[in-house]
Amino acid sequence: MSRNERRREGENGLPYRRVCQPRPTPERARCWPGGFLVGGRGSRHNTGLAHFIPTLRLPSMAHIAISLCGEGRGHATRIATLTERLRDQHDLLIFTSADALEFLSRRFAGDARIRVVGIPGIVFQYSGGRLDVTRSIATGLDYRARQLGPLVDLLLGELDAFGADLAVTDFEPALPRAAARQGIPLVSVDHQHFLLAYDLSSLPWWLQWQAWLMSHAVWMYVTGATDTVVSAFFRPPLKRGWEHVVQAGPLLRAEIARATPGNEGFVLSYLRRHTPFAALATLADCGLPVKVYGLGERDAVGSVSFHAIDDRRFVDDLAACRCLVSAAGNQLIGEALHLGKPMLLLPERAHAEQLMNSHFLAGMGCGDFTLLEQVTTAHVRSFVDRLEDFQPTLDAVAGRIDGTDDVVRVIERRLAAPQSLPAPDAARAPEGAPAGPGRGG
Hints:
Layout: H1 3-6, E1 30-32, E2 35-37, E3 63-68, H2 74-86, E4 91-96, H3 98-107, E5 114-118, E6 126-127, E7 130-131, H4 133-146, H5 148-162, E8 166-170, H6 174-182, E9 186-190, H7 194-197, H8 205-221, E10 227-231, E11 246-248, H9 254-258, E12 267-270, H10 277-283, E13 290-293, E14 304-307, H11 311-320, E15 323-326, H12 330-338, E16 343-345, H13 352-364, E17 367-369, H14 377-385, H15 387-397, H16 404-416
Helix pairs in contact: 2-3, 5-6
């Protein structure tokens, strides 16, 4: 029996279940936790007394609240994939901001079982085309001090009205706190928890230090998860004490999973909107045509053409390209690996997570990387000349990386057993700092 069903039971033990499709309007009816409140204002069926409609138990149907970080496209793509797998059996209420709000609102417009709600969120701050870590941290601290508390209070009302049986978060701080106060089980599905759960001893010592520092933010950001899933294209051992964490590959959207890889002899590039022009100039001389996404549509520069974001066209180009030159986001790396595409990653100097992704990809033998601020034509040409060297490793990975089924199994298992105890990381702080080069590292 779902949490919503347990709230009220009628005669003969029949549970009352809120009817959520179609969702009631103020003119037709009012929703109330635990049932469909019949007899809305102005209704000819209004008897002056609210009554509940009892229904038979439908264990396959639940109300799932989802929240996600609005920065970039990775979180949005991951949650869109998960939403498409869940929407046939469950009603979904999604909270997000910024890029993800626009993306998900457009993607699920008109779907009666999905509601996308805008909330305040944190986004990275840039200065002079570069990630500004100091401003980004200051923005995050201001968000925590001024907006997080009122937002949690707002979500408490939303969760109660929705009758949420389960909460799922992709690195968003308000829903976990609201779910904890409501006693709703929480499934955390994100990439960032690798900073807490994964053995990162294969990384350079200075990146291990950055991972340790960043892991404190992850620990404070998402609290009280009943289940923790790390979605990543790499899979090192789990740290001691984190063996309960589920390791899943990137969640691949259906268009990627269905795509047939080919080779039409061009380079595909996906770059952040703050990419400096000097980095673009290095692509023009690589010896192959280049299609660039992420910077908007503009006039071509030599063999480099610029394209507006179009999900279907980008998937077609990713499947057809010879290789990828891109920012180092986990989601896009996973999609390219699935399609067997060699990658030259261009992480930003100040973006530690992208640097870690880049080191792991190079360690797998599926591509190479250089800093966005330091990339030269020679770097790009050298990568293009070595494309065949990456193919054997890519062939072993392609088509075997999708983690969507693993995540869906965790969610369905939690819906079936919502009262289980929280996982050990619910209150587990990051361990001690890693050793530096003079301390055994």
